[in-house]
Amino acid sequence: MKLKGAQIVVESLIAEGVDTIFGFPGGAVLPLYDALYGAKLKHILVRHEQGAAHMADGYARATGRCGVALVTSGPGATNTVTGIATAYMDSIPMVILTGQVPVGLIGNDAFQEADIVGITRPCTKHSYLVRDVNDLARTIKEAFYIATTGKPGPVLIDLPKDVLNAAAEFEYPKTVSLRSYNPTVEGHPAQVKRAFEAMKQAKQPVLYIGGGMILANASAELAKFAKKTRMPVTTTLMAMGAYPTRDDLFLGMLGMHGTYAANMAMHECDVMVCLGARFDDRVTGRLDAFAKNCTVIHVDIDPTSISKNVTAHIPVVADLLDVMKKLNALAEKDAIDWDDKHRPWLTRLEEWKSLYPLRYGKSETGIIKPQFVVEQAWEAAKGRDPIWTTEVGQAQMWAAQFLQFDGPRTFLSSGGLGTMGYGLPAAIGAQAAFPGRLVVNIAGDGSIQMNIQEMITAVQYSLPVKTVILNNGVLGMVHQWQELFHGKRYSSSEFQMNPDFVKLAEAYGAVGMRITKEADVRPALEEAYRINKPVLMDFVVEKEEKVFPMVPAGGTVKEMMLL
Amino acid sequence: MKHTISVLVENRFGVLARVAGLFSGRGFNIESLTVAETEDAAVSRMTIVTRGEDRIIEQINKQLNKLIDVIKVVDVTAEEHVERELLLVKLNAEEKNRAEILRMVEIFRGKIVDVSAKSYTVEISGGDRKIEAFIEMVRPLGMQEMARSGKIALPRGTGASAPKAKKPKSGG
């Protein structure tokens, strides 16, 4: 059956099981938008293309499926770059469809032309410019395959307008054959065995979990393994939710704003088991003082991550689900008394946990403490199966520290790139996937303004996302660094003016609330969660509050600043 | 240390940019890079000469392997291999120089490929040491201009770097 290129795109997306896409039309993609008219595919019209990319990203993180964004050529495409780079840094499966000027005009500086394949080359897993309508279906099949397999990532497909208008025989390919792409899935059994033997020898082991655990859908296997072997667990920001945070083996997040117990465990361990993390500088601090006296086991699907920053003594290249299953099988067969073996180590960790828990000072001025808001946001959300998103900075760190998580894909945050403006559109993406769940974005007054225009998208599509603004009138993390490291010279980090967020919310057709008293925090949250509409809560919080503990950039655990 | 890396890639537009971008984006240096079609028109071979500590070279190898269009990466430095570079150099061919140029070209088994009243253009191929040595020898005679192709290399023996369909692997 002959179809137009635009219809081929729509049929291919449906064949991939896509139900929702996020986009914004324009000249070059008009044929595609025409084909979408009345199609069995939900299209959410955003207000800025960056929003579309983050929504596709949030949808992907929440569901584990591939997110899809559709934008036009030139500025439409370039506006997605931040969203693509965000997804790339955090290995999120995403397909971005961009319009392009007709093939004959490419390279001629045509109206709304941008070399988007060139612009995004360093921040996509792969990209395509489709020059022939006959290649279209195969290209889309390949793009989804590449985006979702191996180490996931964003794949861009650039679609010239004349390709969308041309016709071709349509048959969606069933399989993909790429001779140059075959990610390693299975962990080498001997190497996994070696890793397990090293864990058996360990007196003070620690499981250091990264976002790869969530991407591999291996959280349940991890819980089984940790409980069986009684090994303590610490997670990165990206792995929040990969392990239940209220479990007694959980040490909290590690790294720059990690807990004392987690960082000390990393410092004092004799075997460090890194599962799907990449030794980010926010985790390691000064590299030459990190993991000096321990055996490093590193499991990652991406060979380039292994021994990039920290040399792995036992490397395993594989999908984590496969490795965790193999490890569990080995642990099952083994008769070792793990609890007895690890008792002294676990006792020590317990001491650290109770001596230096995450805490914050009581408010003396009566001004609300931001950490209190986050704690209450979690308390009030009990039983509502919440998904949390964050913007970036202090609010993000407090969310990671003071929220509790029971399962994976419930904490969506821009880890690698640290993208301000991520949280609100990501929340909309997650809510589009799960209309019945509570989706809450923890934001600062700075970051929320980066993509606040998407409020109206949430209202238009009845996606009742909740936004918690921890409003301290400053760019909190910048302010904190300026206070600690730049002699309180607050260069351009204090907003002299902010919009009236309540009126702004109302202008968008959402519900706005301003909360200034501690006693009103919980009732406001509960009311907001009850309302079946987007709600924006403006919590006026303490300006001087800082995120602690803190290991200064490039520092070591020995320099950790506590409260 | 200097490394010669032979990379087989899909013969598609944009692949060179991806490879070059990988080097520039990560601050790796390229000393030379050659690329052309192989016996299979769908496949191109790139020969990249780069320099770095073992850690850097390992990253380069892994990162190249990670590119979707890269079929095979072989660091031929440690293997038995044949390598060649082509040099074209235009020398001052004044009366007093001509005999010396001819002598040098003969010693180095080169060829004079163009002659004008004032210049001889010489073609030399060989390993980089031979090329460097020739340049050293003729520099005093007066070089007008030169062009080097950059190195190409092949492992010795049969089919050592031939493209094969990769099978899903297990990794350690």
Major beta sheet summary of chain A: 6 strands, parallel
> Which oligomeric form is depicted?
heterodimer
- Give the SSE order of chain B as H and E letters: EHEEHEEHEEHEEE
Ranges of chain B where pLDDT stays below 50 over 5 or more residues in a row are: 163-168
Radius of gyration of chain A: 24 Å
- Give the beta-strand count of chain A: 21
Query: What is the SS-derived class of chain B?
Result: alpha+beta
Specify the structural class of chain A: alpha/beta
| Residue runs with pLDDT of under 50 for 5 or more positions of chain A | none
Query: Mind summarizing the main beta sheet of chain B?
Result: 5 strands, antiparallel
- What characteristic shape of chain A results from the CA principal axes? globular
The count of helical stretches of chain B stands at: 4
Percent of residues in helices of chain B = 25-40%
The averaged pLDDT of chain B comes out at 91
Number of helices of chain A: 22
Q: What distance separates the N and C termini of chain A?
A: 68 Å
Instruction: Calculate the terminal CA-CA distance of chain B, rounded to whole Å.
Output: 26 Å
Most extensive contact: A-B, 32 and 30 residues
Strand residues, percent of chain B: 35-45%
What is the overall silhouette of chain B?
elongated
Major sheet strand order of chain A: 3-2-4-5-7-6
